[in-house]
């Protein structure tokens, strides 16, 4: 009889554990967005104002409000190497936050909308570039630097993503390039940071941290994209010509 009671007790405990895990796994999109809306990170995802490029606390903010299917940007700040997709905010405003160091000076740029290059419609500053092409531009009066962001570029051609949380029991890393698999890529806890080092393809990169089975965006990356799965994903551009230093805690 004691064995029967023990088996029943074990079954009940197992059921409670499974139900608890299930509750985390089955967080609804509405609950997820409500939780995300309490985070400062969505201050750009909920942006409404459109104006020329401006310096904010965590980068250079670009905004674009015309109604197009796709909006991209390129310019002197990224050596015209890539067309960076802008993210559509919850109010329909396209935005992108550049978070890499820049020297003082003049920076030309253009938007590509539905595949066609145009100048910034809200920026009156235009000039002819070396190719006799009219471009928009903005001016930085001082050097700016934004080092506290993911990823860290390593000398061996890998990148390291880090996440700060000293109460989590486990943190997994996932991205679109990894099939958004939330179970296969565990991060390692070291020196008060969860870290993972991997080889990432050059180009657009969408990712999340899964903290004790709860999907989280990167608190150091203000570029947030709502995917077709309904989740919010952090977004960055993998470019091995950039350098980035680890944040000191």
Automatic annotation (TrEMBL):
Record keywords, A-Z: Kinase, Signal, Transferase
Origin: domain of life: Bacteria
Domain AMP-activated protein kinase glycogen-binding intervals: 61-139
Signal sequence region: 1-19
SUPFAM superfamilies linked: E set domains
GO molecular function annotation: kinase activity
Keyword Signal (UniProt): yes
Record has Signal as a keyword: yes
InterPro entries membership: AMPK1_CBM, CRP1_MDG1_kinase, Ig-like_fold, Ig_E-set
Pfam families hit by this protein: AMPK1_CBM (PF16561)
Similarity comment: Belongs to the 5'-AMP-activated protein kinase beta subunit family.
Protein's name according to its UniProt entry: AMP-activated protein kinase (AMPK) beta subunit glycogen binding domain (GBD)
Organism: Brachyspira hyodysenteriae (strain ATCC 49526 / WA1)
Lineage start: Bacteria, Pseudomonadati, Spirochaetota, Spirochaetia, Brachyspirales
